[in-house]
Design brief:
Elements: E1 4-5, E2 11-12, H1 22-33, H2 43-49, H3 65-72, E3 87-98, E4 115-128, H4 134-146, E5 149-158, E6 163-179, E7 182-191, E8 218-219, E9 233-242, E10 246-255, H5 258-263, E11 273-274, E12 278-289, E13 292-306, E14 316-331, E15 334-348, H6 350-354, E16 362-376, E17 380-391, E18 408-417, E19 433-445, E20 448-449, E21 465-473
Antiparallel strand pairs: 1-2, 3-4, 3-21, 4-5, 5-6, 6-7, 7-9, 8-20, 9-10, 10-12, 11-13, 12-13, 13-14, 14-15, 15-16, 16-17, 17-18, 18-19, 19-21
Length: about 475
């Protein structure tokens, strides 16, 4: 979660907000009205392609090279063999155990430990904009254009908060061609979460861990680009991928208005509001190394924001600059993916400091994630991640402990079993999938909400979490 100063001088972990332009309203309303609903490895994509989920993923949501191509071409490639509408459903029942009980309950309505819940239930619309019906509805000429427009969108019920809201949502137009001797894939998009459009799993929106408990303590600090804006902004941009090697993406984001967020099930209270469209950039290079594919790149975003939607003292400013890399190789029956992600955030609290919401006029924050994921025989998977959060101490911004420290680090260990990954699920609703997960998070340092912090930083292990989940998609 990403912590930003609020108008009440409390540590609010929420995303920013801004008034929405007519274009933003049009894009958001159009995407939502067409039932564009999003997620990860959608069975609707598999049905559209008449392939197993493993054709695009090592384990979902990790994309392989073909999966990245499918995403870059706008989710629109199709085998034209099904008349099923591009809907999918996902259920995520789970169990959470923390090393120490959480006094007062893990969340309202839950016990202090050993909680079960439907972490989330989601409805998706994913694939071509009009599914398999564009030709019959509009004729050949219109369909040839409309079938280059795809959606990837999600409506989610949060079983912990007991609320519905829109989730990751994107609509894009994509096509391929050539410029001289160079092959080019290009597109334009609108979405509600920076980095959602990215084809690699080394950037935040689809980065590891792909699942996690909403009933366990979590680190307080995080960069803005790592989820702080999710579901509360609309952004538009364009990208080009040249010779399957050079990827360039530029866009800008502006937070949706208060009423629009409410319509989509999002509570905008206490958010930081983007004062002007915030530019986003992404540059990556992918190449063959041995029998695998190596990507390395940079991404970032900068924004001027009103703290707690209060413009009386001017704006704060943050700039995020990220570096990432991904190496993926298949050998024998193994699909191995190694990922690295580093983000440096510069924070200028001109308005927040004047309002008394921070102890410092400026801070910085650095996050590092190093992840290795291996899938054996498309069925069994294991992952490990080291994560580290370090930043400037600020007693006004990070209020969990008397030192105002944002620092946390530890490891996540995870094993998965995917019984249908090769076979594609029952015939009456083909391409369904199930992933059974057991995850254990170990903290070396911990500063976060609902922590068992003892005031000296020596009780991080009390927040260690065992999480079991069934990820059911059909």
């Amino acid at each position: 979660m990403n912590c930003h100063p609020s108008e009440n001088n409390t540590n609010e972990c929420r995303a920013p907000r801004a008034s929405v332009s007519f274009l933003g309203l049009l894009v958001a309303a159009g995407a939502f009205a067409c039932a564009p609903l999003t997620s990860l490895a959608l069975p609707s994509f598999a049905r559209q392609m008449n392939m197993q989920c493993s054709a695009c993923h090592t384990e979902f949501p990790v994309l392989n090279q073909f999966g990245r191509e499918f995403k870059l071409t706008g989710y629109t490639q199709s085998a034209d063999t099904t008349n099923l509408p591009p809907f999918a459903v996902m259920l995520m029942p789970s169990f959470t155990h923390t090393q120490a009980a959480q006094a007062g309950g893990a969340a309202p309505g839950f016990s202090e430990n050993n909680n079960t819940v439907i972490t989330q239930a989601s409805l998706f619309y994913g694939g071509r904009l009009f599914g398999p019906y564009a030709k019959s509805l509009f004729g050949d000429t219109a369909a040839s254009w409309l079938n280059k427009v795809g959606v990837f969108s999600q409506m989610t019920y949060d079983g912990v908060a007991k609320t519905w809201s829109w989730d990751n949502t994107e609509i894009r137009f994509a096509d391929s061609g050539s410029v001289g001797e160079h092959d080019v894939t290009y597109g334009v998009y609108a979405n509600n979460n920076p980095t959602l459009q990215d084809p690699w799993n080394s950037t935040p929106a689809w980065g590891y861990p792909y699942v996690g408990s909403g009933l366990a303590p979590s680190p307080t600090a995080g960069t803005f680009i790592d989820g702080a804006f999710a579901a509360q902004v609309v952004g538009v941009g364009a990208y080009v991928f040249v010779d399957d090697s050079i990827y360039v993406d530029v866009g800008a984001y502006k937070t949706l208005g208060f009423g629009m967020q409410r319509t989509f099930g999002v509570d905008p209270t206490g958010e930081a509001e983007i004062a002007h469209p915030a530019p986003y950039w992404r540059l990556a290079y992918e190449t063959s190394v041995g029998d695998g594919r190596l990507e390395f790149g940079t991404f970032g975003m900068t924004a001027m924001t009103y703290p707690g939607r209060d413009s009386s003292m001017g704006t704060d400013k943050f700039t995020d600059v990220g570096l990432d890399s991904e190496y993926q190789i298949s050998f024998s029956k193994n699909d191995l993916t190694a990922m690295a992600n580093y983000v440096h955030e510069s924070q200028s609290w001109s308005a927040s400091y004047a309002l008394g919401n921070t102890a410092n006029p400026g801070d910085s924050l650095d996050t590092l994630k190093l992840t290795v994921n291996d899938v054996y025989d498309k069925t069994y998977a294991g992952s490990v991640q080291y994560f580290n959060i370090d930043g400037t101490a600020d007693t006004g911004l990070y209020t969990v402990n008397p030192h105002g420290s944002p620092n946390s680090d530890g490891f996540i260990f995870q094993v998965d079993y995917m019984p249908f990954n090769k076979d594609g699920g029952p015939k009456f609703w083909p391409r369904s999938n199930v992933q059974l997960t057991l995850q254990y998070t170990v903290y070396n340092r911990f500063e976060g909400a609902r922590s068992n912090y003892d005031g000296a930083g020596t009780n991080a292990s009390a927040n260690n979490t065992l999480y079991a989940e069934a990820w059911i998609a059909f």
